[in-house]
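Practice set, problem 2.
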Amino acid sequence: MLRTAAALLACLAALPAHAAGDLALGRETFAGACAACHGAEARGDGPMAELISIPMPDLTRIAARNGGTFPWLKVVHLIDGRTGLRGHGGPMPMFGALFAGDTAAADAPDGTPVITSARVLALTDWLASIQVAE
């Protein structure tokens, strides 16, 4: 048991640490993977939005819809596919596999350890940075 825990810790230590604040990577990732549906400024007005069966949410108001707090861990899980989201009559595209190969570790604001793509983490941080007050 101790050997397994030590091996797990060694693997986690080998992962690149998430550099909070890589907003340029987050913005670039959004532009390439999300803007077609969510709009260039994340307001839900992308060119594909009218073809989707549910209204496209304004991503600048995630915190406002959650009592003023940005649900960082929930957003990570929505983007990387751990939490399903219904859209266009089916699940939102899951980008965890698309962003494979740049695995990173981070601590959620509540201290929960997270292992996912560095681009998912950067995108989540960028989305947190563009939140507008209600």
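Problem 2, part (b): a different protein.
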Amino acid sequence: MLPRVVLLIEMYITSAIYNVYIFVCITIVLFSKGNDTVFLEQVFQEAEMKGSHLFLCLFSMCCWVDLIPTAGDKILHFGACRVSMSMTEIRAGFTAIKANIQARDPIRTLSILSHPHSLHKVNSSDRCCITHHLFNFYVDKVFKHCKTEDSYVNRKISSIANSFLSMKRKLEQCHEQNQCVCGQESTEKFKQILANYEGLNVTNAAMKSLGELDILLDWMEKSP
């Protein structure tokens, strides 16, 4: 009887310690407002395998709170799709490294996003689709090839990348709800951007695309 009681006590203590660990992880992510999105996914998968009911409760609370826009968030309209994005935080992060990134661009005569007028005169009905394409483009292609020898710059890039990943998921929800219909114009515009990107070597194209991030942000904020 005694060994069984000891075993139950050990299991209870282990579970309590693990749940405290989960709580700390959630708290960190909650206050960082999305900067540790990838880390949160890893914690969620681990807790799900261990069957932590406390984690599921805390995770639900975290998701609910994350839906409430913070002071730096802005509601962006892309046709029928409306999403919140931490524009102030992203702009601040980009401004801090803009000069450094643009100095790494050896080809100043070409542009990924603005030449030849890639984002100009996009119909309102196509804005959601091309924005969805662009966030996939930055997450899947650009950020992966923007590593530098400067740890400060890398941290800023990682923070921006996580914000883009969160935005990408929101746009995917709009796409799944048929609020992000892709017309011929958005398809052609994105093909043009992709052709501009693929015309350069991977590193130069990635750095140039990151250096033009303010073009994308300005265009998004001008969305009707």
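Answer key, part (b): The CA atoms of residues 173 and 192 lie 25 Å apart. The chain has a mean pLDDT of 77.
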